[in-house]
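G., the chain you wanted modeled:
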Amino acid sequence: MKAPTRLLGLFAAPLLLAALNVHAETIRVAIGTQDATINCATGGLLIRELHLLDKYLPHTGKYANVTYDVQWQNFTSGAPITNEMIAGKLDFGVMADFPGALNGAAFQKAGKHSEFITVLSGSIDGSGNGIVVPLDSPLNSIADLKGKTISVPFASTAHGMLLRAIKAQGWNPDTDVNIITQAPEIAGSALKSGKIDAHADFVPYAELFPYRGYARKIYDGAQSRTPTFHGSLVDVDFAQKYPEIVVAYLRAAIEANRLIAENPEQYSLLIEKVTGIEAPVDYLYHGPLGVQTRDLTWKPEYRQAVATAIDTLKLLKKTDVDLDPKTFVNDTYIRAAFKASGLDYDAALKNYAPQPLVANDAKTGKPIGDVHDVAQVWFENEARVRTYTEPGEAFTAIGAAGSSVKVRAVYVRDHDSGLKLFAPHAWYVKDAHGSLTAFLLKSNADAFAQRTSGTVADFAAVSGTASQALALH
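Predicted structure as tokens:
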């Protein structure tokens, strides 16, 4: 009788394991990203490429025997992400305030619900959106656009910026300008061929097109003083069923945010490798004092951006749904993720500072205290960006390095707003001592020069041999 007993014992464990496996659950976690919208990187691209979600997905309690089927899908805009979420093919989506509001409205119209669960990157002033013109255009400001043809991706956050900017001029958007819809990839060709007078767009195109050498920025969204952001949404049905997974996703976003803050050059190069968008443009956003602030907290200004988006979309007759921004934004999960990561959400909520610049002057070696007019140089053969106290020092360093040493990018700051700019596309005021002050707009440079008895010049005039050495447009 002992032999059959031993045989039963041999078969018992595999049978028990097989029984458990029959009841094991496979949970799909499907995330829609916008890789080319580079300020979304911490909610998509970096999490995927660095396998950060795997670190935080729960494996205890009700998740003890779970198998995860993590799916990533990349899109060029928010609208198709919304379509896939409504169809039940995506659980999370990453997009801006305007398409995010459309997402919430579309869910509600379908008898479902989605929620904005975190901000990823944004600007309480509106930086990130912008208006560009062809490189050789005589237009220098938005005031020059009356009667002109301006393209923009309709129902995008840039569309909202454009309408507000036109309203601020006292113009009628239906009669004083000709607004047409155009996707970024089409607009690039239209700018090159001069088929449009101007193009308004979102991250990163108002910086990317000038960097590639066929456009010039004449208006930055910060001039509108209207908050804008990109963030993450979740299907409420999924979130209520698997709240721990939502927190896991947000913990991965928090880690991605920390990593790119610690080494923006390294991860800007990774973003370039994945998207083809040049690392200097990525660094312009994600490096210290960047165009936007990576911020995972629901500041009042970002909540207001959601409300503004809903109102504007109704004005554009893009939706007739009454979406309540108070319930559409849910900070429960991001607060839980902060707590699980050992971080103070309320302290972060009060912090409005951009990614800080902590650096020594590359010329003197001394710590830089006043960052108001700093300049930075990213040499192609160096892993880290150099920092100088003012633009003239940076240009001198480039000239001294010689034409054989390629430069990825040179950055300066707009003296009035603090906006980070590519040096070749700025205007400069030279004072009696030879020091340089940078500006986005020529009109602002002219006004500053008049107050300080300085002279206004473009990059070629003030940079000397540096302009010849630059390996950029």
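The chain has a mean pLDDT of 92.

Shout if anything looks off.
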